[in-house]
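request received
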Amino acid sequence: MGTLAHTLEAEGISTVALSAIRGVTEKLKPPRALHCEFPLGRPLGKPLDADYQKNVLTAAFELLKQTEGPVLIDFPDTIEDSSDEALSCNLPPRDDTDQHPALAEAKALRGAYDRNLAGAGHTNVGRVGDADAIPELVECFIKIADGTSWKEAGIPTGNILEATKDMMSYYEEAGAELAGHTPAARSAESWFFKQTEGGKLLIAVRAAMKEAKVPFWMYITPMGV
Amino acid sequence: MADQMFRKMIANEGVPVIEAAAFTSPPPLAEARVAIVTTAGLRKAGDAAWGPGDQSFRVFDNDDRDVQLGHLSPNFDRAGFAADINVAYPVDRLAELAAEGTIGSVGAHHISFMGAQDDTMTKIRMDSGKAAAKILKDDGVNVVILTPV
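response:
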């Protein structure tokens, strides 16, 4: 992002950057940066809190009064992620009499996913397919965990990294509905990987790809999972 | 704590060397035309996916709200954006600031790149970044708020 700041300034546009990783901002030295020690993925701090978001923007725009740069200021409030505290919610009953538990679980979550979409009006599922494609994705992941090459598993569009994000988002958005509130940062992700069959499946996919020496195996799940 | 682990690792990564940093003086904020440039790897629902090492950009109309996170990295929260796109793409907040007269106006377009690139970003610096700037300047934008994920 600091690179873009320098590029845009050189083209005659004034920039102010919201910094997420202070160590990188210190090295790149964009002309004006407001460092916000907020959860990664939430650079304005708090979803559904317009006043808080506006305070962040106002503090950022204040830097435009500086007559020379680089200037790096810290926003006074900080927010930590909640990856250590998995979202608390109960999974709906599933029918796994003759199917893989992850497949049964994903199908059972569809109602919660749909209710969340109806309420939020927005979804991050749709990178390789919409929610209808989730069972197919799960079947592809089961094959990879069982030893099939990721290239031959039939992933829609062939983009496995996008496919894993669709799976994570589907669960995280269903989990938000089951919990009844917007999850604290990364708590839905922790719930997915620690408490669901779908999360266990993606961890198995990562292990299989590591075993097969696929160079990007570490991007199948977040660090530390 | 997941973020701290990632921040620590990324802070040790290489960054492009900027030989001569420009500093463009802005107009008064109340007269500024403001656009968002984000590195969140956003895309409109149904648009093509971002690829590894992709240093291109996507253009959105100010009215667009059907934007999705398409960034390839798994190392950031997605649930906040799913609940409220403004937490990384503050289009509604800019509209409010313009209506209040805090900023002059909001650009007709906003732009997304995908961050977490290699340590040279040559294409962004020499090509796509300049092309994005032209689109903004043609619209009269003179201030950009840059947002990461």
